[in-house]
Amino acid sequence: MSYDLYFTRRAPGQSWDEALAADDARAEPLRPDLEAWESIVGRTRELLGEVRIVEYPPNWELDHEATGISVNHWEGGWEMSVPYRTHGEEARRVVGLLYEVAAVVAGASGFECFDPQLGQPAAEVGDLGRAVELFDAVADRYGRRGTVTA
Known about the structure:
Blueprint: E1 2-8, H1 16-25, H2 34-48, E2 52-56, E3 59-63, E4 70-74, E5 77-83, H3 88-109, E6 112-115, E7 120-121, H4 129-141
Antiparallel strand pairs: 1-5, 1-6, 2-3, 3-4, 4-5, 6-7
């Protein structure tokens, strides 16, 4: 179970639901953007430190072990995720890093980022407190509050 971020290109006046549905219905995959990928890898390393890269064209994946943040460039599309394994202030730190990396992905790829958990574009999320509340709710549900996390 993870907290996910989606990326898409919206046409003027197109809703997020319409854009994401169009992505799902696309008959042909997008072309990978290796220039954007290299830029994202470099900038993400500056933010997070060492990351693991897995390349199996047409798919590329970046994983940061300490936070669990993952950036995926699959068949030309972009997605991010982080597992719900933290809570409280640590969740706030991880979600903050997730959003920083998302801004890097959006800037390098030209795609817009959408947070489906909050139901709004990442660029419009002013306070990450609602996201942290979701991490805390998962921790409560699975009895992980009070445990030490990475």
